[in-house]
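User: Run a structure prediction on this.
Assistant: Running it now.
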Amino acid sequence: MKMKTIKLSIISTVAALISQIDVLGAGTLTPMNSSHAAIQIRDHNVDVIINNGFTRTTINQTFYNPNSEDLEAIYAFPLPESASLSEMIILTGENRLEGEVIKKKEAERIYQEEKDQGNYTGLASKVEYQNFEFRVYPVRAQAESQIKVVYYQPLKIDTGVGRYIYPLEEGGTDEVAESFWTRNEKVERTFSATVTLKSAWPVDEFRVPNFSGETTKDENNNFVYKYESQGGALNRDFVVYYRLAENLPGRVEVIPYRADKNKPGTFMMVVTPGLDLKPLTTGADYVFLLDKSGSMQGKIHTLTNAMEKALVNLQPHDRFKIITFNHRAHKLIGNWTAATAENVKNAINKVNNIKVNNSTNLYAGINLALKDLDADRASSLIIVTDGVTNTGVVEPAKFHKLLKKQDVRLFGFLMGNSSNWPLMRVICDASGGFYKPVSNDDDIIGQIILAKSKVTHEALHDVAVNIDGVKTYDVTQDFTGKIYRGQQLILFGKYDKGGQATVTLTAKKTGADKTYATEFVFPEIDRDNPELERLWAMSKIEQIELHESIGKIDVKETKDAIADLGVQYQLVTDHTSMIVLDDESFKRHGIERRNKQRAEIEHKAQAVRNAQPVKNYRVDDNKNMFNFSAPSSSGGGAIEPFAAILMILLTLIGYRVTKQN
């Protein structure tokens, strides 16, 4: 019998976070009604190194099979968006197996063939979005096996705050998967986490909310955090925050990698504008788009409480609308309404009477929410939904076309582990908006700091970054024409050869054209950061996927391009998987050891970096690219409505988590 595949999403939207339904965490999977005892997780150890814009996460797990016969261990957990899975190693008895990325169907065929012959093997596959499943065979009867997984991901600083998340919590909305699988998320012996923060810029504070570990400084003045517990469950996200010192300069940092003069180089450019975007003082318009479909059952009460708190914090010069949707869109308050005390009271009564039913037509909701916007006022569209769009228009390209018609600030705070974040990425690409994952275990104050000033301050428009002087190509970027206060920009790309270059940022601010430029040098040789090649390839893959979803690239071309990048740079994608074998089996199947060679280069560079103080990659020291006015992380006055929604939801979540513990 062919097993159904479990779907383990990494993000869901705000409403999914406030569900009263218990969620499931990462762990080993066993078919329902199986006569076998579940494969145990004896140890789960995580080691994280944060260094100059990207992180390396290493997971070491020990499995134990308590049964009297050999079994297949199936382990699943979500990876963060933009994470590049790079290594999988299995240690069982005296056998060591390592992973190589090949085309997905071929990897599945080889795994099944090796399994049928009773040989040691493993398989790492992407299931959906950024959700990964790992298979190990055999886990010998009443014996242990160890698995090591390594992945890299870029890491942004937002309003001076860095955030790393190790996601474990699953959203629990896939009823088909849950009816097929049972999940063992219990750790029998030790769960531990070590985080090393290497920052070229001074750090004022480092914190890990909801975990009681110990933070120290090492000989290079890096923050080192350690946590260990005996037993426990893999059902809570592990979130790390760090806050840079105030009044740091706006800056450009370029992290290069070029191992050979005869080959192209790779770079990661991090642009921190530090622009003084002024607060909006003339009043703002807010469109609240609320999901009232049947999947919101059990969530709507908490949502209405949060909306009540948000509405009472509106200012009299603000205006609002409230749109709801299920299988159709509805005007709860369809005309622009001044936020007077009487109007707010009336709105609260209507929100409290919302009833949930029927399916989810997100397109209809957005379409109605975008009507009759006032071009003379800043408009914010705040979407609150569980993200399961299943009625009406569902094609991403049509969402993209719809959002292209309007100039609106669109905000999607994506929380938990269940929603369709690729669709939200399409929506934000069209609108210049942004979305952000927020975990149940996030720091409430930290998330308010990140959200607050983006809603209430000016934004830059028509933003473009250009590099001249050295030929660059295949440049990818994570912004779409707008920059909000505190937002950091990341670009990946290739360059032909070393030499002096100029980077120029152009933008419009309140109708005026702004231009900032600085010069720097691309090095002929720099072997410090070979991981950049994988990060660039993953960024390129995500760009290809986005263009496919909005109809810019043919599906067949997309599949071939992603598969080629996955094999060349050894990345697990929708069209590639990692087959794990011993040396002799790789020879027998004629599989080139590309990942072994790449990982050895990365390990060598990491050993050198670990022994040295962190390197500063700022390139505009002599000619500062930006004027800077540090955004305040505090401030008095009333709470903005969007921050109020976020604060109330997270406060209620924190209450639930505390109560459950």
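Residues 500 and 521 are 4 Å apart (CA to CA).
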